[in-house]
What does this fold into?
Amino acid sequence: MFFGALEAGGTKMVCAVGDENGNIFERVSIPTTTPDETMQKVAEYFVNVNAERNLKALGIACFGPIDLNKKSQTYGSILNTPKVAWRNYPIVKTLKDALNDIPAGFDTDVNGSLLGEATWGCAKGLTDAVYFTIGTGIGGGAMAGGKFIHGMLHTEVGHLQVALEPNELKDFRGVCPNHGTCFEGMASGPAIEARWGKPAKELADKPEVWDLEAAYIAQAMVDVIMTLSPQKIILGGGVIDGQAKQLFPLIRKKTLEKINGYIDTKELRNMDSYIVPASLNGNQGIKGALELAQLALEEQD
Ligand code: ADP
Ligand code: ZN
It folds into this structure.
């Protein structure tokens, strides 16, 4: 059986075809420009592969915020994203219309990555887990009791409030356009660059950079541990992937320091397998989109 998978990101759209076992047979990457230009190419790709392979369903893991409420008039649309041209764009409808109303699964990009890990990766068999991407922005997806947290909207744990760390630079007040000093404002790639005056990857040999970075990440770890009680926390994205070797030990240590003995579980006693890197070689997002497709087909049957 063939499924279409779309990882819709702010810089590129990864379109792929795979099967129910998580195999990916082909993929293309289309730059994210205007909705009309981009989505015409994306739709064309899926229409062509559908003619060849008869796709059973499509899964879309999309940058947000997005409307996931199936009872809403605007279900399947992108909401008030900072990417103004994409505001209110009905991404699910556009693709369903192009593909004869094929079943379509839809969730956030980060829930998609978490689903990929929960289906084929390091969160397999778990019911409660959190996935963060720390890159140009920070986003996080969360699963509780085997379901994604949708509720009012969906998790936006990239914008958790963080406290200024004691060794924060005197005048740095963060880069989030909405909140300044939220988690993303203090710990995204652009935050690191704004604070230290150089791109993050050029700061690899500066311990103070990664000490502070890990401290903010640890604050977010503690917050999700206390609120969501995940069985595992997975970290991905350019900043994490680029500095994994020095960041993970610091993040684990600082998370335990901040918890300060208040909770004591076997997971927290095994930090090396509790806060972990993504395990699917960068394919967690597209594989999660593939699983969204399969779930949409099952839901319809
Ligand atoms: P996006 O969030 O747009 O999907 P990425 O996850 O690829 O993007 O992350 C891009 C960010 O990662 C940039 O802000 C960049 O500064 C940062 N980055 C890239 N390479 C490294 C590296 N080797 N070390 C630390 N940060 C890096
Ligand atoms: Zn923010």
